[in-house]
TrEMBL record:
CDD domains: EriC_like. It comes from Craterilacuibacter sinensis. This is Chloride channel protein. SUPFAM superfamilies: Clc chloride channel. InterPro entries: Cl-channel_core (IPR014743), ClC (IPR001807), ClC-type_chloride_channel (IPR050368). The chain crosses the membrane at residues 70-91, 123-142, 171-194, 206-225, 245-272, 284-302, 337-363, 375-399, 405-426. Signal peptide: none annotated. GO terms for cellular component: chloride channel complex.
């Protein structure tokens, strides 16, 4: 009896099942890809809006200030007080700079942190509160908060594809990298930042996600703003052999000052003297108003020099317009610490570069035979590397932000020296220590207080 060549019902069912499963997996794969593309483009758009909003509010503040400097005594304290009130009592999860929160959210047991800090509500609120701080004249930047915002956008829009912790971690890293790349127009810096500062190790599985996110967010920002250098183009060069004295000098000075700054910031975060800690805990809003009054007083006394993010003053120093800016570094450092002490929402990533430019100018003035702009760039990277202990991110971001590729080797050397000096002052890097303390606080909290 001849056997029929027609497949049995069971075989046909298996084939149909495989085809349907393949179709389902293909649809899921493309859904995940579209989510990644859309989120990266959205991060680029947010970075553009955030950056332009920051500059507009900065100009608005100075328009009012130019009309009468005494307005600062009202705007700065009230702005910081309102920011603290909203972040503590209304918009929960928006306090802080943003980078430590993202680093802490990378931990496997940080599910509570991810649900608290990486939401779209927090992302939108963080934009508003950061712009409020910048518009108040405080020393804040948007580049730190945009990291948390980008991570939240990436994590939430890609959450449907999260089947394991590693994928979620990759989304956070990709969102952070895309944010830095779009905010600074520095794609390499975004990738390096995700590896060195955020992940601490190279995550091969997340590499393609990070790279694609950086490309799409960067192209989106480029479509609106064009190809630009964040701090302009620095016409600077320095031969490594003839410039070893300023390289060592800026490395040592930047490492010491950056390390001390990191120690002070950590002290403000977790180890305040009892009297100050009690005053801030008793009335955080009034404490922020007091900090705002001091910031406004310093700003008025310095003829407006210390107000704002520091972007324009740093650019002036890089371009050689340094008259009257000799004390900028120390005064900007003081207002940056006071802004952070106030508890208002805002970042210190970009202000740290401005402080470094000020200290670089001081070193350059002690070495008139050396090219001033080159020494200023060395001061920027050294102070940043000393404060964050992220030397690779430091020299890459300064090189890209100033279009100074000819300074690569000197920048690398100064950053490495500064990071080494900073290690003698602090056991852990700034953002890593903040993330550790944040995790420790959350883990120690009773279950009732977490909800």
């Amino acid at each position: 009896m001849a056997h029929s060549s027609t497949p049995s019902f069971a075989v046909r069912s298996q084939r149909m099942s495989r085809r349907m499963r393949f179709l389902f997996l293909t649809i899921r794969l493309w859904q995940r890809r579209v989510e990644l593309w859309v989120s990266a483009i959205l991060i680029g758009l947010v970075a553009v809006v955030f950056g332009q909003g920051s500059h507009l509010l900065h100009e608005l503040f100075f328009t009012i200030y130019d009309n009468s400097p005494w307005w600062a005594l009202l705007i700065t304290p009230l702005g910081l007080g309102l920011s603290v009130y909203l972040s503590r009592y209304v918009l929960i999860g928006t306090a802080g700079g943003g980078i430590p929160q993202c680093i802490a959210a990378l931990e496997p047991d940080a599910g509570l942190l991810r649900e608290r800090f990486l939401t779209l509500k927090v992302a939108v609120s963080k934009i508003f509160l950061t712009l409020l701080g910048i518009g108040s004249g405080a020393t804040f930047g948007y580049e730190g908060p945009i990291v948390q915002i980008g991570a939240a956008i990436k994590y939430r829009l890609g959450k449907s594809g999260i089947g394991h912790f590693g994928y979620g971690r990759g989304l956070i890293l990709a969102g952070s990298a895309a944010s830095v790349a779009a905010a600074f127009n520095a794609p390499l810096a975004g990738i390096v930042f995700a590896i060195e500062e955020m992940g601490r190790t190279f995550d091969q599985k997340a590499s393609s996600t990070i790279l694609l996110s950086v490309i799409l967010s960067g192209l989106t920002a480029y479509a609106f703003l064009g190809n630009y250098s964040y701090f302009g183009t620095a016409s600077a060069s320095m031969h490594f052999l003839s410039g070893w004295i300023p390289i060592i000098a800026t490395g040592v000075v930047g490492g010491l000052l950056g390390g001390i700054t990191a120690k002070l910031i950590l002290g403000i975060s977790f180890f305040l003297p009892n009297s100050i800690a009690k005053a801030r805990a008793f009335s955080p809003v009034l404490f922020a108003i007091l900090c705002g009054l001091i910031i406004a007083g310093i700003g008025i006394a310095s003829d407006g020099m210390t107000f704002g993010t520091g972007y324009f003053r740093a650019r002036d120093i890089i371009e050689g317009h340094t008259e009257g800016l000799e004390g900028y570094g120390i005064l900007k450092l003081i207002t940056m610490l006071l802004s952070y002490l106030s508890g208002a929402t805002g970042g210190i990533f970009a202000p740290a570069l401005a402080v470094g430019a000020g200290f670089g100018l001081n070193v350059a003035q002690l070495m008139p035979a050396q090219p001033e702009t080159a020494v200023v760039l060395l001061g920027m990277v050294a102070y940043f590397a000393g404060m964050t202990r992220a030397p690779v991110t430091g020299f890459v971001i300064v090189m890209e932000m100033t279009d100074s590729s000819t300074m690569l080797i000197p920048l690398m050397a100064s950053a490495l020296i500064a990071a080494g000096i900073s290690r003698l002052i602090n056991r852990h890097s700034l953002y890593d220590a903040q993330a550790r303390m944040l995790l420790k606080t959350i883990r120690a909290a009773p279950a009732t207080s977490r909800n």
